[in-house]
From TrEMBL:
It comes from the Eukaryota. This is Conserved oligomeric Golgi complex subunit 7. It comes from Cephalotus follicularis. Keywords: Golgi apparatus, Membrane, Protein transport, Transport. It is a peripheral membrane protein. It is found in: Golgi apparatus membrane. One of its GO terms (biological process) is intracellular protein transport. Its main location: Golgi. Pfam families: COG7 (PF10191).
Amino acid sequence: MMVDLGPFSDEKFDPKKWINSACQNRHPQDSLDNHLVDLEMKLQIVSEEIAASLEEQSASALLRVPRATRDVVRLRDDAVSLRASVSGILQKLKKAEGSSAESIAALAKVDTVKQRMEATYETLQDAAGLTQLSSTVEDVFASGDLPRAAETLANMRHCLSAVGEVAEFANVRKQLEVLEDRLDSMVQPRITDAISNRKIDVAQDMRGILIRIRRFKSLEAHYTKVHLKSIKQLWDDFEAKQPINESQSYSSTISFFSWLPNFYDELLLYLEQEWKWCMVAFPEDYKSLVPKLLIETMVTVGSSFVSRINFAVGDVVPETKALAKGILDILSGDMPKNTKIQSKHLEALIELHNMTGTFARNIQHLFSDSNLGVLMETLKAVYSPYESFKQRYGQMERGILSSEIAGVDLRGAVTRGVGAQGIELSETVRRMEESITQVIVLLEETVERCINFTGGSEADELLLALDDVMLQYISTLQETLKSLRVVCGVDHNGDWVGSKKEIGLDKREGSQNMRKGDLISNEEEWSIVQGALQILTVADCLTSRSSVFEASLRATLARLSTSLSLSVFGSSLDQNQSHMTGDNGSGEVSLGGRAALDVAAVRLVGVPEKARKLFNLLDQSKDPRFHALTHASQRVAAFSDTVNELVYDVLISKVRQRLSDVSRLPIWSSVEEQSAFPLPTFSSYPQSYVTSVGEYLLTLPQQLEPLAEGISNSDTTNDEAQFFATEWMFKVAEGATALYMEQLRGIHYITDRGSQQLSVDIEYLSNVLSALSMPIPPVLATFHTCLSTPRDQLKDLLKSDLGNQLDVPTANFVCKIRRVDLD
């Protein structure tokens, strides 16, 4: 049995575990004692073998140590010798380096001289060749061999570039330019004939000649000139079919609206045929030749195109059609002042623009293999007739919106006879509320027109126009509110409250209840109050609708920011990559997988300053604090404040009138009347002025209830509407309490009888406030306590514990008017 020595080398070796394992692995027929004896013997034999081997290896190692020591000493001596040899070699290299550098410099000078001599030799050869070419070029031209003439002129140009600016060859340079022009003129009739008659071989040969003499522009000019005449006939076909009379340039815009799509279809078919032919005739140039033809076409018909658009748009409105004028004439001020731009004008313009947009998409598909820069320039030319209109888009929208808002029925309220004021107020409020919806719809249509016509590139002008028009509209609402103040009787000149002299008050008790509005019945008063409360719905409607519109406007700006960024920056990046190839417009940028170029992107790529301003605005719109209508938002808040002020003035006016002369009532200074019978010295009932106010306050919740129901029917929850009504109830009640306490502070002297009566009045008003779930103000409670206390006990009251709960200034004031000395 072999003994495995592997487990003995393990750090976690366990002798007991190893012995038990060895016992378990014995043969079943072997006894345990014999197995252990054999195992012990084998382990002893193995240990003896290991000890012998270790002794033998140690002796051998001791014998090898002297030999290894001698080898180390020999290697050290060899290293020292090698180091000395390397040091000597380095010194030799340093000496050689100095002499070799001088040799290399000399060789470089020799090489430079050699290169210059070679260049001089080549230049002399070119000069000799230039002289020879200059003397024989006329013979080449006389032979009529145009390709040979082109090759000769190309060689002359090469020689001139090699010679440089040498005075002796200045005349040759001028001669070359003349000869190139001459060759160009000789090629012109042949290439014109080849292009006109579809002679592919001749066209290619003539193209090669022009390219050889660097006259590619001439090729473009010849190609464009041949086809521009045919396309111009398509354009002039409209005038040929339209009889011109004495009063107008074009007799019908409907014909132009129906004619323009046909023109675009015929032009597109013509360009498709040219694209296919040029792919064969000019495979290197067709991607730029055919777009160049379209660009030149739009330049040629540009002014006529603008004129036709102008008149076509003008003819959709009878006023401008009768004058044979268009939208540009209105913008320039050449029209009567009553002639306004209408939405129909712009809608007609957008309709024509959409026709052009369809043509532009077809062109992009046709020219999809062209360089992106060429494609952008082509589409810009296609849209160019509308540029003069887009540049004045803001002015157009201002005119349209101002005219449309002026047509909204917002006439102010007029003062009617007694009994009709409430009706007038209700009608005016109804017109105001309806006008808000109408104006918001107009603004939404304006945003849609901007996107349809400019693609959002005039978003900055749109916001300015919307802001200005909203300010104009809100100013009109403010003027209407001023007229409502007159109808409600709370303006400075028509206040319900007047002086005694104005309304004829006498000195009898209760005369303070007379007023300028006594002729108005209670029903009329409450109808005015109800109408005034409805103005709150106008403010709420304006605030909510303008807020929703602004949110929609911000969402539109966010979409524009994303779409325009992808279009403009993507196009710019592709063009930059194209220019980096150095292909001078002949490089290819595939449009595969790319969406149609946006009309706004076509405009903005060419005007970086406008694009920068627009994108700054679009970036700002991402801020939650951004207001699309900066000034209008502030004016809406101011209008809401004005409405709240008006409503409060109406609601508090009756209270103000009833309490106007409370401080001057004669009962406060009345003395007790002598009587033989024990009669009460004051009335146990509150006076009419305070009961009138109390009844008004108790009735006010019934007036606010319809308002709360109207608000709860909108987007506002029922709890919010109830809170709204309660808030107004508290506001009026607090105002009434403040007016009452102000009147009480105006009393100069009060007798005991007056104190007792005033105490009853205050108690009644306190009960009313409690019924309305309002806390009793400490000042009013102090008035009541001090007035209900007998005069001789008032001083002791202030010194008692109860006096610590009173308002000290008010308590002192009551002591003063009751002539109680606190010293």
